[in-house]
Write a structure and sequence with these properties.
The protein is α+β, with helices and mostly antiparallel strands. It has one domain: Cytochrome P460 (Chalcone isomerase, 3-Layer(bba) Sandwich). Strands 1, 2, 3, 4, 5, 6 and 7 form a 7-stranded antiparallel β-sheet that branches. The protein starts with a helix and ends in a 17-residue tail after the last helix.
């Protein structure tokens, strides 16, 4: 190998290692012990939503189990192992196009984890939230799981999930 080839390989390896370390940087678990799912930023889109009550945009992503369930229509109930990620941004007007709504800085990332045994007290779903780009765990105790479950009870006919997978051609 030439000196240049060795240098480029070394540079690539250093860059790849730096990315891996940055992606796996320690983020504290939620108050109920749920850990931030690794690699969730690489998950595929399941749905989108806009909440008018708090002017926020949401992208709902799914782990591979969730994606398979969504694409096959197997979402009522969602299978155990499903993880849904909801990334939330306050909305704003595009600076160059007033009719367009665009996100501002990340407000929080929420997760629903389906395990009908482990989370039986909350209808089979575990809930967690991390705030902002710093990914600070939300809440100081596990009471937010009850808070989330209470709101999601409105969607009990849909396995406690508000999200409707977007239909694809």
């Amino acid at each position: 190998m030439t000196k240049n080839t060795l240098f480029l390989l070394s540079l690539c390896l250093t860059f790849q290692t730096s990315l891996s370390v940055a992606e796996n940087a320690a983020v504290p678990p939620a108050a109920n012990g749920i850990e931030l799912p690794k690699h969730y930023k690489n998950w595929r889109l399941i749905g989108v939503s806009h909440r008018e009550d708090n002017n926020s945009l949401r992208a709902i992503l799914g782990n591979p189990v969730a994606i398979a369930a969504a694409r096959s229509g197997n979402t009522n109930p969602w299978p155990d192992g499903t993880i849904l990620a909801k990334l939330v941004w306050p909305d704003s007007r595009h600076p160059l196009w007033d009719e367009a709504t665009v996100p501002r800085e990340l407000k929080h990332a929420e997760f629903m984890i389906k395990d009908s045994v482990k989370y039986a007290r909350t209808s089979g779903w575990g809930f967690a939230r991390w705030l902002g780009k710093g990914q600070k765990p939300y809440g100081s105790d596990a009471s937010f799981s009850a808070e989330c479950h209470s709101c999601h009870s409105k969607a009990s006919d849909y396995d406690y999930v508000f999200t409707r997978p977007v239909p694809l051609p």
